[in-house]
């Protein structure tokens, strides 16, 4: 299988290309990567080009990984080919119409792709075959894990939930570290404490495979220090702030479609 990534030097496109090679799914020579500037220097054995049409001709699977605002300028046709878009807010119908193929998938990774831990939901147009789905799973699993979901509405919502990747946990980490430093902790110690706490939490939730709400309840029922912290955060509007943030992210995701 030859994979072409339009925007292959970017954050997500580059992470996908490097993961495919590092994980042994593809050799460098099985990749064509396009960019607008000079090739970045990594994956020197891949074919680097500025020409999207050349990329499409060489590829069995074409990954669209440019920013939504750059999508209208992409000059490419891919009649009948499998196209996988990772772009936020660009619909299956728009991609199918522009590229001349019904074999279109929308996948929504996140920046943890850089460390092989993206969660990537994806949805497929009607003409996508079982063999195409196997190809999509190979891409998704190169950068982490994922699920096929039933509708584009779910992808549009997940764009502002899991697509944001490390952003919300990093926001929480920033607030925790700021408070620790305000209480006199050395910044390096505060940072290490919070980052290790996030890593440990992820591992614990994964290992226990239980609803995170159960973990919260266990601490509330313990009625110690943590329960006081949780209840004060909730009373100050923690859940409402999260819901408001997700609402704003969803609105932006939907607004991109009309842009
Ligand atoms: N960064 C993230 O956390 C996530 C990004 N996405 C989506 O992935 C897509 C790519 O995002 P990033 O990698 O973050 O952006 P990026 O800006 O890092 O990469 C996009 C790359 O596309 C290149 N490009 C633009 N026009 C081009 C053209 N005509 N031919 C060849 N290359 C071209 C740019 O030079 C750039 O290197 C976006 O549509 C975004 O919505 C989805 C989920 C998460
Ligand atoms: O913030 C963004 O627009 C990109 C797409 C989804 C997550 N990151």
Automatic annotation (TrEMBL):
GO terms for molecular function: pyrroline-5-carboxylate reductase activity. Keywords: Amino-acid biosynthesis, Cytoplasm, NADP, Oxidoreductase, Proline biosynthesis. Residues 3-89 form the Pyrroline-5-carboxylate reductase catalytic N-terminal domain. It is an enzyme of class 1 (oxidoreductase). GO terms for biological process: L-proline biosynthetic process. Pathway: Amino-acid biosynthesis; L-proline biosynthesis; L-proline from L-glutamate 5-semialdehyde: step 1/1. It catalyses: L-proline + NAD(+) = (S)-1-pyrroline-5-carboxylate + NADH + 2 H(+); L-proline + NADP(+) = (S)-1-pyrroline-5-carboxylate + NADPH + 2 H(+). Coiled coil: none annotated. Belongs to the pyrroline-5-carboxylate reductase family. Catalyzes the reduction of 1-pyrroline-5-carboxylate (PCA) to L-proline. This is Pyrroline-5-carboxylate reductase. The lineage of its organism: Bacteria, Pseudomonadati, Pseudomonadota, Alphaproteobacteria, Rhodobacterales. The gene is proC.
């Amino acid at each position: 299988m030859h994979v072409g990534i339009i925007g292959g030097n970017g954050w997500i496109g580059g992470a996908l290309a490097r993961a495919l090679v590092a994980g042994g799914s593809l050799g460098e020579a099985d990749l064509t990567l396009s960019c607008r500037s000079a090739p970045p220097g990594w994956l020197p054995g891949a074919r680097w080009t500025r020409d999207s049409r050349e990329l499409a001709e060489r590829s069995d699977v074409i990954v669209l990984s440019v920013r939504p605002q750059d999508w209208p300028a992409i000059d490419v046709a891919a009649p009948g080919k499998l196209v996988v878009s990772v772009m936020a807010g660009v619909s299956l119908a728009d991609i199918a119409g522009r590229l001349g193929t019904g074999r279109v998938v929308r996948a929504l990774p996140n920046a943890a792709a850089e460390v092989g831990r993206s969660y990537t939901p994806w949805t497929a147009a009607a003409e996508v075959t079982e063999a195409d789905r196997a190809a999509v799973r190979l891409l998704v699993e190169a950068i982490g894990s994922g699920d096929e979901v039933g509708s584009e509405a779910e992808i549009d919502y997940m764009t502002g939930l899991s697509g944001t990747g490390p952003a919300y946990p990093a926001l929480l980490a920033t607030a925790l570290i700021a408070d620790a430093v305000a209480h006199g902790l050395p910044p390096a110690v505060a940072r290490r404490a919070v980052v290790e706490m996030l890593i440990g939490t992820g591992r614990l939730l994964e290992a226990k495979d239980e609803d995170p709400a159960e973990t919260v309840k266990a601490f509330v029922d313990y009625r110690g220090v943590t329960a006081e912290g949780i209840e004060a955060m909730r009373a100050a509007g923690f859940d409402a702030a999260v819901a408001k943030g997700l609402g704003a992210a969803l609105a932006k995701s939907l607004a991109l479609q009309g842009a």
